[in-house]
Amino acid sequence: MKPLIVLLLPITLHFQLYAQSETDSVKLQKNILDSVYIAEVESPKQKAKVLHAEPLFIDLIRDLGARKGEKEWNLGLGITDNNKYDSYSALVEYEFAPVDRLGFEVELPFSFYYPAGGNDRNAIPQSRLNSLKLAGQYTFLVSDPANTSLALGYIHEFELPSFNLYGKGNLFQGHVFNPFFVTAKRWGSNFHTLLYTGPVIHKPQYKPTQTHWQLNSNFHYMISGTRNFIGVEFNKTFRQNDFDMTIRPQMRVGIADNFMVGIVTGIPIRRENERFSSFLRLIYEPGHKALRGHHHPIP
Q1: Were both Cys, which of 103, 176, 231, 251 would link to 157 (CB 3.0–4.6 Å)?
Q2: Extended beta strands in 63-130, E state
Q3: pLDDT exceeds 80 at position 30
Q4: Could you tell me the residue ranges of all domains in the chain?
């Protein structure tokens, strides 16, 4: 028995050392990939920029610390289950940065409504191009040592009538004014937090002004060496004597150097009117290329 133990002991030690070596090698590879990818975004040869994970449902106007020439096209598709009807949403959005740290956005958001459970179509909202949405965002602080960025922005929406009212009145039905503040921090190489907040002031054409506050907190984990992430948005709305929150688990996957797909699920904490929802965002970045030899879209 003892000779057998003596024979097997070196073999066992060999496999243990090999397994440990493989584990250490994988960890080292992940650390190298993280360092290379972060260095790609935060290149010292360009204007300072910190890599942050951007939420998928209520997204930013442009990357925090955007650099001149960056641009992005987004196509969004969503469905929401309401008590009396189903709503389908679609958006087309273009983002660009004319100068360092300043981003602009033009968006066309659409909504289509269909009655559920035998409800009358006239008793539900009417399908429409919701608004012409224009926005700007300026990153006024980029801190490399703290991996932190701060930004201010403003969104203005020119509200449009439903399709069946075109040509029967004024083109613009009201305005939405939305100044906002963003703060984001990366913790180490993989963990990201972001806070987005500000008032939303709605001025319909013939009705009193209404104001509510939004507070969106975001947590994401970015997978080593990629732009892929998993995370969650907490979209909170505060009105007088009312509070609503929707939890939105999400993931983003890179398909190519310049093309990503984001998938979002919406879970309201109270189902007063809205129930579960889902949202898909297609993201195309013309001109974006990964560092040579470093592209891992899907882990």
Answers
A1: 176
A2: 71-82, 85-99, 102-115, 128-129
A3: no
A4: 1-41, 48-284
